[in-house]
Each structure stands twice: as C-alpha cells, then as structure tokens.
Write a structure and sequence with these properties.
5 helices; Alpha-Beta Plaits; 2 domains; alpha/beta; four-stranded mixed sheet; Carbamate kinase
Length: about 180
C-alpha cells in the first residue's frame, strides 16, 4: 500500500476534480471561513463577504496570496464548468459562488500580500477609469512613491518604495470596494 499526502490545496483540488469526473452540478468546499471576502477580515474589520466571483477573479486573488482556495482547484472548476461554493464548516450561512459569472468594471477584492505591494482585483478593471483615478489620487494624497504600477484585464498591482500600512488598505477598501 502506498500512502501520500495531498499538500497545500490538495483537498480543494481533489474535490473539484472528483466533482468534474462525476459531472456534478456544483462543488462545495467547506473550511473555517464562510466565503471569500473583499480583503482579509483579520486585517480589516470592514471586509465584506462576496456573494459571487468569476473564476478569473478568484485565480487573481489566489495568485496574490489569499489562502482561501488553491488556484489549481479554480482552474479545474473553470475547465470543467463546475461552480465552486466556498462555505463554512461551522455555520449554515450562504457561501461565495465561483463560476463563469462575469461582472465588468467591478472591483471585488484588495489583497495586501507583503509589506510593499497591493493588488486590486476585478473583471474589466482596466476599463474602470474612475477606479484607476481614485487609486492614483490615494497614492498622491499619501505621498507614496511607486516602483511599479501594473494593469491587466482583471488586476492592478502596485509596488511601493516603502512599507505600506494597513491604513492605506483600509482607505482603498472604503473608496473602491464599499461603493460597489
């Protein structure tokens, strides 16, 4: 008999792969959190639980270091069109549905993954000119020096010269996410 460990994200990935093999309608992933939030609720009490996300948005959130779902399970869900529902093991609250649903120009999440980088995630963010203007205004108001400002279809990543405080994370969250 061979014994193996699944590794980080192994159970999520295995669950979605089995759901795909069984042609299941949905795949539920139960954990200690009751869904995906707009930012880390341990860092910012104003974080809001998201009702739904696209696969692309969840992949961006996972790639930026959020440890709610492993990116490989999201890739499999997308490939086989299996909606993934992230819910809590400890309560019966509705979770977050990750599927093909795409809402353009909405900001869904802000991830601060190290001391000098913030990523803002949402489908069509590249065309959200008001959001980009607001981000640049906040950076200017806080007299921050950017090293890199990278924009893609679904993510803006900003690297700064100095350490970024949770205060800026809170300002971005209040300005960008809470108004959507």
């Amino acid at each position: 008999m061979d014994i193996t460990t699944l590794g980080r994200g192994g159970s999520d990935t295995t669950a979605v792969a089995i759901a795909a093999a069984l042609k299941a309608k949905d795949c539920y992933i139960f954990s200690d959190v009751d869904g995906i939030y707009t930012t880390d609720p341990n860092q910012l009490k104003e974080a809001q639980k998201l009702v739904k996300l696209s696969y692309a948005e969840m992949l961006e959130i996972a790639s930026e270091g959020a440890k709610v779902l492993h990116n490989r399970c999201v890739e499999i869900g997308e490939k086989f069109k299996i909606p993934i529902i992230a819910k809590s093991t400890f309560n019966n609250k509705p979770g977050t549905v990750i599927s093909n649903i795409i809402e353009e120009n909405t900001i869904k999440s802000i991830v601060k993954n190290d001391i000098s980088r913030i990523s803002i995630i949402g489908n069509g963010i590249i065309r959200n000119f008001e959001g980009i203007k607001s981000i640049l205004n906040k950076i200017e108001e806080n007299n921050l020096e950017m090293l890199e400002f990278e924009v893609s279809e679904s993510k803006i990543s900003i690297s700064f010269k100095t350490q970024i405080s949770d205060k800026l994370l809170k300002e971005f969250h209040k300005t960008l996410v809470c108004k959507n």
